[in-house]
Every structure is written in structure tokens, then in C-alpha cells.
Amino acid sequence: MALPSLMLAALGSSAYASNTDLVNPLIGNTGPEPNYAGGMIPSVAPPFGMTRWVAQTHQNWVSKTPYNWTDSDYIHGFVGTHQPAIWMGESGLVAVVPGASDAAVNAIFEDRGLRKAQEKFGASLYEVELLPENGGSINVEMTATSRVGHLRFTFDAKSQPYILIQASRPSQLFHSTPSSSHFNTTYPDGYVHIYAQQQQICGYSTEMQDTVIAPVSTTALWQEHLREGTGHGGFKGWFCARFDAPFAGHGLTQGKEQREDDIDGFGAELSAYARFALDQKTVNVRIATSFISMEQALYNLEQEAPDGISFEDTEAKTRAEWEEKLNRVELKGGSKDNQTTLVTAVFHALQYPYEISEYGKYYSALDDQVHEGVSYSGYSIWDTYRAEWGFLLLMAPERIPGMIQSMLNDYKEGGWLPMWKNLIETNIMIATHADSLIAEAVLKGFDYGYDLDVAWDAVWKDATVPPVKDWETLYEDREEGVDYEVRAGLSTSYGLPEKGWVNDDVHSESVSRTLGYAYDDYAAAQLAKRLGKPAWIVDMLLKRSMTAPWLVWNADAISQDDYPSDEDKKRFEGKTKGFVQGRNSDGSWAAPTSGFTEGDKWAYSFDIAHDIPGLVEKRGGNEAFVESLDEHYDGGWDWFGNEPSHHIPYLYTLAGRPDLTQRRVREVAGSNFNATPFGLSGNEDCGQMSAWFFFSALGFYPVNPVSLQYVVGTAFFDKMTVRIPVPKHHGAEAKSEKFYEEATHSYVLTVEAEGAQEKLYVKTLWVNGEERPIREVGYDEFGKGGHIRFEMSAEPVLEDSRGAIVHEEL
Ligand SMILES: *[C@@H]1O[C@H](CO)[C@@H](O)[C@H](O)[C@H]1NC(C)=O
Ligand SMILES: *[C@@H]1O[C@H](CO)[C@@H](O)[C@H](O)[C@H]1NC(C)=O
Ligand SMILES: *[C@@H]1O[C@H](CO)[C@@H](O)[C@H](O)[C@H]1NC(C)=O
């Protein structure tokens, strides 16, 4: 792994020694409120790392991340977090908190904050200087491997330094119904044990905030295990912290109580601490984590940061992992901020899903057992099926079979493919887009390393087996006390021959579901075709996918329908006719505002990505369709921070107006992304926002991911080169490919767009030497490398260079 990274660094011709130096983990951390913020945690860890380490400014839970740059004058410790996204819960948090005091140890969150002087963020290294109130300073450097945090404290303290390891804390559980939401304070248990001779503190946290929305079959199983006393009885986030300095004292704290010399404790609000001699200048703490056991944590420590390793060596290892990935992208042109934005997007998109297997074993919270094999968590699939998965297929092919195997393991252990897996299934968002992930991977040639028959079984089950109590359950967002949600509404209407929509009077988010299921059926049909399934299966899925969207299409609906008062009706008057609308079980229309999630009828009317020609026709042809897109943007209906808006700017191109796609894409990029902590206008959602930016910068975007066609936009840089890792199964054949580079063992994709910063419009497009209508490029034209050239223009170009109007009949 080290060799290619060194070579790539040498080959790189951007102005910066390494893209890793351009990464700014603060990008997308904060915003005016959580829904208008990236919610990214500025952590250190390698790509797809299991435990990410971050300075702690806030207690984190659903809606709050551990670090908030807006309000970060005080640092309250350093935490190993497993919170994948701002609207998801934390699990198994452990905190490392330095201090200086000859007597009292400050364990309470509100009291233990230390003012920060300066702070430095990077992909593999974080540094801060802390100023204790009684004088002196504590310098902290932090890096991490996948399962081990490595912190180096340099004390210049007026009193005895100590380091506290927190195993349990008061936690907030988020309960939400459509009418109200509230937090509930709970006190999860933790365990600590001090091994003073070995200079080691181990223990675990039982905190898992998303259990409130776990499927009931999961929680029932946990209860059973607790009763049987199998030794599991629920989740534990284990840790073992090893110090490189002798303990000058030690003890436990529980709440406000301090027990000097105690070594073993269990319960709420529990921490253990070690004191060091006043003249102890530096202390290295290597803290290993595991979801399996203490022994496993120690094994992980030995594998990733063994005794004797220096801080510099741990940091260099993680940095090398980032270099290997980030230096695959080479940029020419654009400002330093433009390059920072792009490289940080790649950095973000390479964090999810994150590995939770530990050297061939993993703890599954789905069945509360340790298994052999591979597992990942942090699947936000309603978001990531759009572009993030396509990004991973390109940039991390070595991970794909494992990520799919992980989903199949979930299927075996919990009965279903994941929807939003945060260690457990959380039922967050809708539809079974894992179907799309598997279909896209198989269609792109990733059909090895897992059992294709099991994959098909799981996808087929999604398409044909409804959730339990389908008639009685609303399956609303974050509904508690329900089982696996999967395709809620499948048996009550969607899957019935004479129906085909999700009933708005039976289920929440009915329109969004109907459209999501239709897309998944389309994806499943492509998979079935590829796997040679019987024709009736392909036909059934395809028919359902092409019919369902139009069953919730109200051809007479207009924008102003949504407003009860005449005054509002006038204010929101628009020309567009024909929108998606919810339907009840008796076939009647539901209220025009009902049945949507993270979007409204404007966004969702464009969210029929597998049948854009059908959509254009329903809206009255290309011209009327283009007008409806203009009204969508100019009328203020677009909310790019939510995913259903991501592909919309690309639809102009499919209606013969690539110039308008080009304009909108640049507007979207400029107003929703920048190189500051406010640099993402909406939640990162496990890499989906950043993957949009990555593909858009290349000049094309996967509107319909399983079509393997990418709709052309406008490239952002004079030149962007991506050295695509060669997937294992391409090994030998790669050498014969046209765009293969021996020196880096990569496929090379080059996108040229001279003058792209000043000229946003495209005049001519060449794909692999051939001039092309400005419409689509195929995965087969760039997935194994390729050369795409945009001739840019300052003015919109309505005709392509051959003189023909780019206005294809659909
Ligand atoms: C960070 O804190 C500020 C100030 O309290 C708040 O307005 C903002 O919403 C927070 N950001 C996030 C992402 O929670
Ligand atoms: C708070 O959580 C506890 C423990 O899970 C639960 O018993 C209680 O009903 C919850 N209270 C509220 C108001 O949600
Ligand atoms: C490049 O950065 C400039 C500001 O430095 C910004 O105005 C522009 O929108 C950025 N371009 C893209 C494509 O993000």
C-alpha cells in the first residue's frame, strides 16, 4: 500500500505536495441549525475507520455532534465516536479527558472543559493547546487507526497531571412523533477496571442511543439473551487504554463522587483516572476499541498500535492510508478553495459505511452474537444509493464485496437487507434501496466475493414480502415499537395487481414510498435480468416499476392546490401542471401536501429517475418540462440540502437543454458547497452530498444509478484526473486496457475542461476521442479509465458543434 502512494505523490502535479494537506475536516461541521448544516464530525481516523476520534465540545446525541465549531472555545475531552451522522445516535462512546490537579478530578462534563488556545485539523492529525484555569498548558496531539486512538499529551502544568477515561455518561434519547418530539435523559451503565501495574484502564460503555427505534424483534431477542444470561445481553463498546508512563495514583469517579485508589466499578456516570508525577512531561495513551470483548480490544491494540510504537509512526500509518486514496485525484485549475472543497468531499465520502469487523470477526447487534466474517455500519441507503455508492464503486472497489457481504449478513441475522443501519436497523427513511446497491454493483461487474443467490433472495424478499402488521402500522419516521419497516404498504396496496400505490390513509410518506419502491423494482428487474431469472419475474418487476409512479400522478394538480387561503393561492400561483399526489385506499386523492419525506410534491415529481422520458411526456413534452424545471428553481421550490433534489439540475439535459443543466449545476455547487465549516448546506448523509460534488466536478452524474448512464453536466476544473483502483477481478485484464497505468496499477480517467472556472458552458464534448451529443456518458466509457474533454464556452450553447439542435426525440 505504501509504494503506490509514494509514486502517486511523485506523479501528482497539483500545486500542493499532497492532497492530504488540502483536507479540511471542519468543512460542513456547522450551520445555522442542524438541518442546514453538514453535521460532519471533524475526526481523525483512516478511511472507513471503525472508531473516529474527535475533540469534544458538546455532549452528542441525535441532532448534536460531539464537536461544534460555532461554539468551541472549550474542549471537554477527546472521544472515540461511532455517531455516523448528525440525526443518528451515538453508541459505545469513550472519552479521554486530561486535567491537572493534586486532589479533585473533574469528571462532570459541564465542569471539565478547558479553554483552547490554538487548534489544527487534518485527516490524520489533530492538535490543540489547552489552558487549565490554574495556569500552565496541556498540549494534545491525536491520531487514530481504525480501532485505536493514539493521543499524546504534553503537560506543562502547575499541579499533578491526570488522564480520565469515561465509560458512561448521562445520555439523551430522542423520541419523535409527527406531532411532537422530546429528549429523555437516561443513565446507561459502564464498566471500568484499572490495571495500575500494566498502566492500563479497560472497560465498556453500554450506551446505544438508537435502541429506541430498533425493530421490536431485535429488542425482544436482546431481552431473551439477558434472561438467559448468555454473557451478551446487549451491546457493549469495549475499550482498553494503555499509558506509556507509570501511574502516580489512580481512582474512580461516579457522578460527583471520587474514590481515590479504587480500581473496579460498574454503573452510570462512571470514569477511571490515572495520575502522573508532576515532572511527567509527556504521556502517550493508546486506546483500543472493540464491539466484541476486552481481549479483542487488546488484540486490536497489538495489531494497530503495539507497545513501543511512536505517535509519529501511528500518525504516518493513517496518513499513508489517506494518501493512497486522496492522491488518486489530481486537479489543475480552480482556486485553492475549490481544490480544498473537492478533496475534502472525497475525504468525507470515504468514511462511510465504516468497518465494524475486527480481524475476521464481528459483533452483530441484530442477533446479539459474534460471527466470523466482515461487517460494516453507517448505511444511510436512502441517501447513498444515489451517488455515494457509485463513488465507492469507483474509488474503493476493494471494499465493495465486503460491504455487500455485510448487507447479506444483516439479511441472515435480522431477516432483511439494511435500510439505515446504525449497528442496529433504525428504519430511518424509506424504501429498500439496498436492492439498488446490489443491482448496481452486479451490473458493474462486482459479482464476486459474496453469494449471488443469497443476494437475489434478499432483493426478491424486499420486493415481495411485506413487513409484519402492514395494515395496522403507519411506519412513520422514527416510529417506536414497530418491526422492520422495509416496504411498508406492500401488502395493503402497492403489491396488489389492481392497486399499485402506497395508501396515504394507511401509511406515512405514501408518495415518497410509492416512487421509492418503483425505483427499487426497476433496480431488482435489472438484477433479475442480469442473473437470468425467469422472464415473468423480470416482467412483473418492470411492469410494477413503470406503472406505479403514474398511479400517484395527478395530471390536473397545480402548485397552488397546496394552499387553503386565496391569498396564498395567488402568491404561489404557478404554471406547471401535473404533480405526484397521495392516494387513499379507496383510490381517492389525498391532500396534495401529504405523503412526502424530506421534500414536497415539487421535488418528488422529478424523482422518477428510472422513467424520465415518461415524466417529460406527462409534463407535456420537452419545452413544458423545461419550464417546469425553471419554475422549480425560480419559484424557490428546490431544497438541495435534501437528497430528492440532487439529480434535478441534470434533468434539463435529458430534455434537450444541457445549457440549463450547466447553469444550475454551477449555481448549486456555488451556493451549497464551500471550504468553510459552513460549507455544506445540508446534512452530509454518509457521503451523499460530497459524492454529488465529486461527480458534478467530473462533469457527469448518475441520475438513474442502475442504468449505468451518467448525465452530462459541466466539469469544474481545467483538468481532473482520477486514478481508479483496479478491482481484484480485473487484475490481469487491466494490463490490456487502453487507460491502464502500469506504474500505479490504476485505470486512469482524465477529464479536461480548459477554462472551466471562467466558462461554465459546454460547447463540445469528446468521449474517448469521439465527439458526442451533450447528453450521457456510460460507465463502460470511464469505469476502466477514459478520456473526456469538454470544450468550454462563456456563453450558453444551444446547438452542438455539428450544427444539429441537441434536442432528441424521446
Ligand atoms: C452549533 O452551535 C450553534 C450555536 O449554538 C448552533 O446554532 C448550530 O445549530 C450548531 N450546529 C450544529 C450542526 O448543530
Ligand atoms: C424515558 O426512558 C425510559 C427508559 O427507557 C422510559 O422508561 C420512559 O418511558 C421514557 N420517558 C419518556 C417521557 O419518554
Ligand atoms: C470556486 O471557488 C469560488 C470562490 O473561491 C466560488 O465562487 C466558485 O463557486 C467555486 N467553483 C465551484 C465549481 O465550486
From TrEMBL:
Molecular function as annotated in GO: carbohydrate binding; peptide-N4-(N-acetyl-beta-glucosaminyl)asparagine amidase activity
GO cellular component: cytosol; nucleus
Keyword Lipoprotein belongs to the record: no
Coiled coil: none
Any one GO BP annotation for this protein: carbohydrate metabolic process
Top-level taxonomic group: Eukaryota
Signal peptide range in chain numbering: 1-17
Occurrences of domain Glycosyl hydrolase family 92 N-terminal (ranges): 22-290
Glycosyl hydrolase family domain sequence ranges: 296-793
UniProt entry keywords in alphabetical sequence: Hydrolase, Signal
Protein name: Glycoside hydrolase family 92 protein
